[in-house]
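Table S2 (text version). Query chain:
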Amino acid sequence: MPLIELKKICKTYSETKVPVEALRDVDLEIEKGEFSAIVGPSGSGKTTALNIIGGLDDPTSGQIIVDGHDISTLKKDEMINFRLHHIGFVFQAYNLIPVFTARENVEFIMLLQKISKEEREKRAIELLTAVGLADRIDSRPSELSGGQQQRVAVARALASHPSFVLADEPTANLDSKSAISLLELMEVLNHEYGMTFVFSTHDSRVIKRAHRVITLVDGMIASDVLNTSAHEN
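Corresponding structure-token output:
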């Protein structure tokens, strides 16, 4: 069974005078352990696809099977709970809580999961150490560089022991050195720990490293290819 399966997914935004078809009959399967990128020009539907996989947006029609669960049928509170326990998110804008330290930001997801204080602190420190921020555990986002903030976001995404991580343009606000460092970290997490990553991106640095590249054009899959030249650890 695929880890993620989209069946005949359509998404139409009807808020404008002329309805916009963001996705049209998209069929897609993602297996456990993939390091895949959904790419395409602006307006191609790649972010919409990622948001639908993550339950952040509802399809107009079609079925979404995630980690063996049909999330198409979940009510709002059920979807929130499902995301909390199954999906890690890394956003372009980091989405860290400004008044929290790096450790507190990582702990927050576990707090929502009602994990004990001792276990939260232990796992947060372990994760921040793993992403190279052992010396910045008590720093707030304003005291961290963009690359460091995104590493905190990765640690936070992993805190809930998710089935997979969705990363929406994770390198867009980073300089080249920070972007490459972040991608190398994600490759290690994928290669050594089997963490599944699905990116939405137009960044050539991400596309070059992705093991599979799914291209959307006008809301439809135009190509789906294995990237045999992708860097392997």
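Notes on Table S2: The CA atoms of residues 180 and 205 lie 7 Å apart. The mean pLDDT is 92.
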